[in-house]
Amino acid sequence: MALRIMVVDDDQNIVEYLVNILTAQGYEATGAVSREQAVRHAAAQPPDLITLDMEMPGEAGPLLYKDMVALNGMSQTPFILICGLPGLHHAIPNAVATVNKPFDPEKLIGIIRDTFPG
């Protein structure tokens, strides 16, 4: 069964780009461009991993993270943070990595593979 990955970013182009890359790698990828959309999708079908843009307008990344891990079955879900702020991963206990924009998609795939080996 393919890993379910949710891409959360306010930029629809980035969401589509990452969903396409992840799908091409064999992952089941979905995207969300707002807090409401992300929480709704995660509540309906919890992802195995979330990439989270920490600098979405009007959406505080750490608060969205808290909303997400409060959902049933998501307290241990790993997150890959996408941002340009150094040290922000310390605010997110489930962060397995931080990737700065612009990012290398191969680096992101490598992080996912390291997080879920085998």
TrEMBL record:
Organism phylogeny: Bacteria, Pseudomonadati, Thermodesulfobacteriota, Desulfovibrionia, Desulfovibrionales
Keyword annotations of the record: Phosphoprotein, Two-component regulatory system
PROSITE patterns noted in UniProt: RESPONSE_REGULATORY
SMART domains, sorted: REC
One of the protein's GO biological processes: phosphorelay signal transduction system
Protein origin, superkingdom: Bacteria
The Response regulatory domain, residue ranges: 4-116
Gene3D superfamilies: 3.40.50.2300
Protein's organism: Desulfovibrio subterraneus
PANTHER family for this protein: PROTEIN PILG, STRESS RESPONSE REGULATOR PROTEIN 1
Protein name, as recorded: Response regulator
Chain positions found as 4-aspartylphosphate: 53
Pfam families per UniProt: Response_reg
